[in-house]
Amino acid sequence: MAEPITVDDPADPRLHDYTGLTDVELRRRREPAEGLFIAEGEKVIRRAGQAGYPMRSMLLSAKWAGPMRDVIEASPAPVYLVDPQLAEHVTGYHVHRGALASMGRKPLPAPAEVLSGARRVAVMEAVNDHTNIGAIFRSAAALGMDAVLLSPDCADPLYRRSVKVSMGAVFSVPYARLTDWPHGLATVREAGFEVLALTPAAGSVPLDEVAAHRTDRVALLLGAEGDGLTARAIAAADRPVRIPMAHGIDSLNVGAAAAVAFYAVTTGRPPA
Amino acid sequence: MAEPITVDDPADPRLHDYTGLTDVELRRRREPAEGLFIAEGEKVIRRAGQAGYPMRSMLLSAKWAGPMRDVIEASPAPVYLVDPQLAEHVTGYHVHRGALASMGRKPLPAPAEVLSGARRVAVMEAVNDHTNIGAIFRSAAALGMDAVLLSPDCADPLYRRSVKVSMGAVFSVPYARLTDWPHGLATVREAGFEVLALTPAAGSVPLDEVAAHRTDRVALLLGAEGDGLTARAIAAADRPVRIPMAHGIDSLNVGAAAAVAFYAVTTGRPPA
């Protein structure tokens, strides 16, 4: 462990990992480039550590030094104690949860690697809202999806807001990025998955007719709120499927649709 | 129809329905007391009208007078044309959608009335977040729930934020409020519904074991994000049920949980 260090200069270079956290564009560029992400709050910091992400440093208000004692003792990473005003000055916002950690990223596995042991996989196209990515990961983990694949333009699951909304579930489900889109879907099909594209388009099959009672490998392809899947992605899938709609409503929000689809493909039991 | 009136005094008493829209506490008291609610944006205003809510007035920026011409012509309600700065001054925010309508509330039906023709019903306890209420109504409508019942402390489905998040679905699903809680659940059971309480508590039965392939009447009881259902509500239900969780995740968010549960009870087809 490292003895906690009290820092009272907001320009101290040791706080560099935590500067400008509210500047989404800046952090979106900086974090992957510098190989870090920010975990916020005791629970999320603990989960990130348990998932094997190496800690670079922690930024704590003094009252969190006690509750985080075991985390501090288990890591060689430096721990900076700051007062709440200084934390706000550095990060740009009032850090309600009183504890931030800068964690090192791990290299993402290759798609084939996350697919190898999986039976139920979610594939997202162009979901570039951090809240939606986080919510979908939370549902994917909770409902027993085995892995997540992302198109090149999906948002970063390790961005602070995604991690927070996911309640740390981004650490629980293996994920990878497909670099070639939508051709990368061929990798998924070659691994033995039937790729089901979730879309309200005409000709799509009701989800409950195809999802339940399956023992083979299924990949669910989901598009972004609003636009939905591109025609190219739907064409690269095996079958279009839809969640039947009632009362003249045209769609569910993407988080609700994802949860329903995950439930449908994970919970079907083989007929007795 | 009434000829649109240009208003340029923010203190004009005819704009009273639209004052202080960002003051949640004020509006939460005023709107039910004055028998009104605010519909925002062309689509939501049209849906409110189609659902039979009487229009009290509209507040439009000039460019919306054209697209809303048919709505204006179909109603005797006064239409006030204002510039965007005045709209912001009156309401407290920048009205992106350029059109607001003050609609008259209708008396809520009695619980027995909304239950009479229904087969699948959602019952919410203490869901007092306007965003969650809206999201749950959207899913309830989209997934074919026939009615919604609210405990006395649930938030107002006709609050501006709820209406917006629901995409107008609060107008599509009949709902009522139970005044006596949780004793009012007896009304639901007496109407022939089995009341299933959604809870991760020990002893609960996996949802997929009880929800699918049912032809009888089912009511799903849902609690708020965080606290979940009270012990009293669970005790007043017939059976506790749960959505099975994986990867060590302890819960779904309430919107995702509701969507999954609605899908589970509405989509099960009788075995062939």
CATH class of the largest domain in chain A, named Alpha Beta
CATH superfamily of the largest domain in chain A: SPOUT methyltransferase, trefoil knot domain
Oligomer: homodimer
Main beta-sheet strand count, sense and barrel state of chain A? 7 strands, parallel
Number of strands of chain A: 12
Rg of chain A (C-alpha, Å): 21 Å
SSE order of chain A, as H and E? Answer: EHEHEHEHEHEHEHEHEEHEHEH
Termini gap of chain A: 55 Å
Give an account of the 3D structure.
Chains A, B: One of its GO terms (molecular function) is methyltransferase activity. Chains A, B: It holds the Pfam family SpoU_methylase. Chains A, B: It comes from Streptantibioticus silvisoli. Chains A, B: Residues 121-263 form the tRNA/rRNA methyltransferase SpoU type domain. The structure is a homodimer of 272-residue chains. Chain A is of the alpha/beta class and 272 residues long. Chain A has two domains: 5-104, Ribosomal protein L30/S12 (60s Ribosomal Protein L30, Chain: A); 111-267, Alpha/beta knot (3-Layer(aba) Sandwich), CATH 3.40.1280.10. The first copy, chain A, contains eleven helices and twelve strands. In chain A, strand 3 (55-61), helix 3 and strand 4 form a beta-alpha-beta unit. In chain A, helix 6 (130-142) packs parallel to helix 11. Chain A is elongated, with a radius of gyration of 21 Å. In chain A, 49% of the residues are buried. The A-B interface holds A 135, 138-139, 141-144, 167, 169, 172-173, 207-208, 243-249, 251-253, 255-260, 263-264, 266-269, 271 and B 135, 138-139, 141-144, 167, 169, 172-173, 207-208, 243-249, 251-253, 255-260, 263-264, 266-269, 271.
